[in-house]
Design a protein that fits this description.
- By secondary structure, the chain is of the alpha/beta class.
- The chain has helices at residues 2-14, 31-44, 77-80, 139-152, 165-180, 200-214, 225-230, 232-242, 258-262, 273-281, 307-310, 312-315, 327-336, 338-352, 359-369, and strands at 21-25, 49-53, 68-72, 88-91, 109-112, 133-136, 158-161, 188-191, 218-221, 248-250, 265-268, 285-288, 316-319.
- The chain has a 7-stranded parallel sheet with strand order 3-2-1-4-5-6-7, sandwiched between helices. Strands 10-9-8-11-12-13 form a 6-stranded parallel sheet, with helices on both faces.
- The longest helix is centred in the middle third of the chain and has 16 residues, at 165-180.
């Protein structure tokens, strides 16, 4: 595999004429965040892009589109990054230039594409300091980045009022799903926690899943990829206890949106998926009020409440983990008042999300201008 990567790097540097725009994805689950930008760049602006992935199973590696030049680089990435030559390098990876992935020695513009609508508080302090521009999903992110720059005396980045393509993709898919929705007597509940310690699955996952199954719901547990990677024991316990139940499914990939579309109710903690679900399907969310932890206490200096906490009562209901037994009644109440949320949520979405429906056009225009 190492020899293959070296050959890929050599091929990348040989094809110098193709290197205006380069994307990098850590794994295949990141393509949905780039998809709208890539479509706009190659179909509207007629650009050829280079796409580097560290996932050997990434479907992009097998694309037949001549406008997408693909490369597999993983173990050699730290040696490759400092010598990249292109005009714009686009990632959805935090901590550029802080650890093993360094900026190029050449004048490359680094553009960050968020993979969540959450506030920047959710990340390590300074995670975005070495990017040149950021495609902000909404006014909360722009405000947070500007205040962080002021507090630390950092140069002002180019903050682009862009929006969030993944949300638009979920919305469009959900409209199609509604027109083809199969009859299902059972109510489907999706549990999709954040990656942080003390998330739903770690805090009360087994009790919650058991309760929902006992009340006749179909349950999908969708752990964050980092939870699967770092807490295999937790995942194995869920499989052992519920794996044989035909109404339980453990979804180990976030590369598709199927579970978001088919679920009647989402139970979450403070993950960005709650915003994607509520704003993309116009349905409410049950928030379990598990402990909230910042990765770095310095973020408290921003004195701004994270969006994923501030918005909870607007798009759903907050329930204490000590009151799990009330969740079935909350689910039934949501089902009876779904039209209320369908009318309410679009207005909230407009307040917190830029350019709904044409974010990729805005983001691609910024990249072309660079």
């Amino acid at each position: 595999m190492l020899i293959k990567e070296i050959k890929e790097i050599q091929r990348f540097f040989r094809e110098t004429s193709e290197k205006e725009i380069v994307f990098y994805a850590e794994h295949k689950g990141y393509y949905p965040y780039f998809e709208g930008l890539i479509d706009e760049l190659i179909n509207i602006h007629k650009k050829t892009i280079s796409y580097i992935t560290s996932d050997p199973g990434d479907p992009v590696l097998y694309t037949s589109n001549p406008a997408i030049k693909t490369f597999y680089i993983n173990n050699c990435l730290a040696f490759f990054m400092p010598f990249v030559r292109c005009r714009v390098f686009i990632m959805t990876l935090t901590d550029l230039n802080r650890f093993h992935l360094k900026r190029s020695v050449y004048p490359v513009h680094y553009c960050y594409v968020p993979h969540s609508m959450c506030s920047t508080h959710s990340y390590r302090y300074g995670s975005f300091d070495h990017y040149d521009s950021i495609l902000c999903t909404g006014p909360h992110q722009l405000k947070e980045f500007r205040k962080h720059e002021e507090l630390r005396g950092l140069p002002r980045k180019e903050l682009i009022e862009t929006g969030y393509y993944r949300l638009e993709r979920i919305y469009d898919k959900y409209q199609t799903y509604l027109s083809q929705k199969p009859c299902n007597e059972k109510t489907t509940v999706l549990i999709a926690p954040s990656l942080w310690n003390k998330n739903i699955l770690e805090y009360c996952g087994e009790n919650l899943i058991g309760l929902l199954l006992e009340h006749g719901y179909e349950v999908i547990a969708r752990p964050h990829p980092e939870t699967i990677r770092h807490f295999p024991g937790l995942i194995n316990n869920l499989e052992r206890r519920f794996g044989k139940n035909p109404f339980f499914m453990l979804e180990k990939s976030i590369s598709t949106d199927t579970s978001l579309l088919k679920s009647d109710i989402l139970i979450c903690d403070r993950s960005g998926v709650a915003l994607e679900y509520a704003f993309g399907t116009e349905r409410p969310v049950i928030f379990l009020d598990v402990p909230y932890k910042l990765l770095d206490k310095k973020s408290d200096k921003l004195n701004l409440e994270p969006l994923e906490l501030a918005i909870r009562e607007k798009i759903g209901l907050v329930v204490s983990p000590e009151n799990l037994d009330t969740i079935p009644s909350v689910i039934e109440n949501f089902k009876n008042h779904k039209m209320k949320y369908k009318e309410l949520i679009p207005g909230i979405r407009k307040e917190y999300v830029y350019n709904f429906g044409f974010s990729s056009r805005v983001g691609a225009s910024h990249i072309i201008a660079l």
